[in-house]
Amino acid sequence: MHHSNRVGNVRKAKSLGHPSLSFPRVAVGAGPQRPAGLVGADDDAGGDSLGGLEEAAEGILTIVNANMANAISSRTVQKGLDPRGFALVAFGGAGPLHGAEVARALGIPEVIVPAYPGITSAVGLLTTDLKYDSVRTEFQAGNTVDLDRLDTDLAGMQRELTRQLAADGIAPDDAVFERSGDLRYVGQGYELRVPFPDGKLDQAALAQIFARFVELHRAEYGHVFEASPIESVNVRVTGIGRMPKIAAPRPTRGGSLVEALVKTARGG
């Protein structure tokens, strides 16, 4: 009897094709309704559905949440940052469904859910500024850096971006520029992006750039090479055209957990 129920459930599961994460979410009650054809333990006369649909769904979500937490850890803990000092922003269609569990796994004390999490990226696309990047190879090292050449190249790149932004209808007052360089220790095969100060570059500005590189290298890799000269590989100018922004949304009235609750019933 149990064997026949188990086979029947397998057949019904196969008929669903390759279910997405929506299925385990719905199975544990984190969704509006059960998808057509999804069989739960309460729906099966034998009460045996592949070891329990809800238990399997909870296992899937536990693994998914652990993978998300590990991904965040790789960009924080492994880079010397403590996630407990940050808030977790949960956006996207299903981000808020995982936010609390992921934050709990990392010890993050606060989860921020945007008013309309499912369209966060779309809103960003509508309000983001126009941006162009210009890159030029600039191999120079240590105390032999030709500052006049750097200034000349950076100024030329900014003029090119100014013309491009003007062609796109960006007013001069709405155009801003950011300068940076790709720096590394001599002999390394990878670089770090270091911001450059505004204005004409002199020895004081160069010392500031090198000091910032050392800070970034220590934060990224945990060490520095004090005896090794620093070299530039590329210089960059980013031209940003400020675009009109949509009006700030009106805050919604505060509610309670009881009002936010959709349902607590298990199954469909």
Biggest beta sheet summary: 4 strands, antiparallel
Mean pLDDT: 82
Beginning-to-end CA distance, first to last residue: 24 Å
Instruction: Please tell me how large the radius of gyration is.
Output: 27 Å
Spatial sequence of strands, sheet with the most strands: 3-6-4-5
Poorly predicted tracts of residues: 1-16, 34-47
Order of helices and strands: HHHEHEHEHEEHEH
SS summary, helix count: 8
| Structural category | alpha+beta
Total number of domains:
2
* % residues in beta strands: 15-25%
Q: Helicity range of the residues? A: 25-40%
List how many beta strands DSSP finds: 6
Shape by Cα distribution? extended
Overview of this protein structure:
The protein is of the alpha+beta class. The protein folds into two domains: 2-120, no CATH class; 129-241, Dna Ligase, domain 1, CATH 3.30.1490. Helix content is 40%, strand content 17%. The protein contains eight helices and six strands; from the N terminus they run αααβαβαβαββαβα. Strands 3-6-4-5 form a four-stranded antiparallel β-sheet. A two-stranded parallel ribbon has the order 1-2. Strand 1, helix 4 and strand 2 (110-112) form a beta-alpha-beta unit. Helix 3 packs across helix 4 (95-106). It is extended, with a radius of gyration of 27 Å. The two termini are 24 Å apart.
